[in-house]
Specification:
The structure is a single chain. 38% of the residues are buried. With 279 residues, this protein is α+β, with helices and mostly antiparallel strands. Helix 2 runs parallel beside helix 3 and helix 5 crosses helix 6. Helix content is 28%, strand content 30%. The protein has a six-stranded antiparallel sheet with strand order 12-11-10-7-14-15. The protein has a four-stranded parallel sheet with strand order 2-1-3-4, sandwiched between helices. Helix 1 links the parallel strand 1 and strand 2.
Length: 279
Amino acid sequence: MKIIAIVNGKARNKKLVLDDLERITNHDLDVLVTKKAQDTIDFTHDAIGKSPDLLIICGGDGTANRVVNSLMDYEVAKRPTLAIFPSGSANDFSRSLKHESIEKTIFRFEQGNKIPVDLSLIQTLQGSVYSLNMATMGLGANVARTVNKRKGRTPAAFKFFSSTIGWVLAYKPAKIQIQIGDVTIKMRPYMAAFGNGKFVGYGLGICPQAVLGDGNFAVTLISKIGIFDYARYISTIRQAKEIKNDLRVIYHTAKFAEIKVLERKLGIETDGEFFQTLQ
């Protein structure tokens, strides 16, 4: 069986991942270690030419996003089965999956244990991008951009926490019109989240209603919140449970949604990577 592993070369646990991969001796295995984001894209295109049975992503949400978007350049028959071994900063998509060792993952693949997973396609006048885990607009996009700008060895949990607190205090929401099925809503959301997975922003279960592979994405709309609301609901959110009896939080599921920006600007991120600003 042909296996290719793409490893995030900046991952803090890179050595442990490479040690695990070295123990895979009973398969034809290529290990590709990235040095920069573009390597992930290039390695994915190179992998297609080798027709692997299994492509293992050893990285976080950003690495997985780049692999998936690269694979979507090819017809379905050429796309290999994907496995994700979380070794990035947030690993939010993996929180919606059962995490196992690389060896156990390969064994389950050999046994035919695979699950279908949806993708969301975000289209704007300036371009398009696929999202594997979750796309957020508003506060979440600003948090993602802030986290990615912070360099150094500051723990990822602190980067996400401090950035989230900062933007909860400072964010000025855009006014939007959102069409979800037959429902039209005009509002100023602090966050609009569209999730295949449940988690974003280092373990925040913003889309508890999301189900992988059900043909829908979850939509969560959150109106004005403050620091005390964040403290009040953080335990519920981290458990990916719905916030009850608060009209500022709206949950939907949908196959299609359309958003128009009516006032201010609205940032978009997909899988932790800032995409663009709508206005």
